[in-house]
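Hmm, how's this folded?
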Amino acid sequence: MSKTRQHNVYAAQWSADGDAMGSIDLSAPGGTEFGENVFSVGVQRARLPKHTFKALEAALAEGHALDATLADTVAQAMREWAMEKGATHYTHWFQPLTNLTAEKHDGFFEPVGDGTAIADFSGKELIQGEPDASSFPSGGLRATFEARGYTAWDPSSPAFIMNNPNGALLCIPTAFVSWTGEALDHKIPLLRSMDALSTAAVKALRLLGDDSVQRIFTTIGPEQEYFLIDEQYYFERPDLYTTGRTLFGAKPPKGQELDEHYFGSIPERVLAYMMEVENELTKLGIPIKTRHNEVAPAQYELAPVFENSNISSDHQQLTMQVLQSVARKYGLVCLLHEKPFQALNGSGKHNN
């Protein structure tokens, strides 16, 4: 059935009825929620034995492997922390060659002989997982019938909790590798390039007489542009809900240079959405700093403070996930495609 102008006007209406986050007194002790769902260095320092924490810090700083005893201690502390946050399951969270994240959930509870169950999480389970790799793209590295894939814990990117209305999940950032060592994800090439750049930079510093530097770290801060469209408009467009971008349509009567929209006053509905997104990102320890209207109609942007390249890349995936999931609570759909609308400004990323 064709939609009338009255339908479209009704779809665009919004009121702030129902639940709201409310205002938080950020000046009060404990008022800030930054990183509350992250197994951060501060949490590790408080929960791990002193010698274990120092050994973990040294391994991360110098790039050494972790021994089994250390991994077991970290795993137990991580499980206890996660269960206090309401988590019943954990997942090795990785980034296969699909441009999406992937996860397989496993429970902490295991049955014992007397008909009950006990919560446990070993260092072996923390360090390595074995999701089936046969259905992931691999660039032709191996045949499907002999595909094996392994997730390997990345201790340089902290574990975090993802909340759900019915519980919580412990997410452990991992790399994804084949049996023979080929990278099956986007994280391994990034880690390898960071390591190669560090090695080359340290050599250059040695030639310049600096013998104290042991490792060089790179940083990025990807700003995220995105479009928000009302759900009703979205579902009237088969091209949008199928591909996330415009496949048909006419050019707008005016170009994209809308001076009144760029850095303009943020609409109430969009600002409410932005605030909830920022609240969720804050809990995940993502340092969001900036929000504003972008140049195209219904286009907006958020920007984080730059941080370690590996952590920032993981945070970028989480940012896009939160942007899309929170939008539906406001009757909106968040489009992240680079060019979602014909003849309009693209929704891209700028690395700081």
In short: The longest helix spans residues 187-207. Residues 129 and 151 are 5 Å apart (CA to CA). The chain has a mean pLDDT of 85. The radius of gyration is 23 Å.
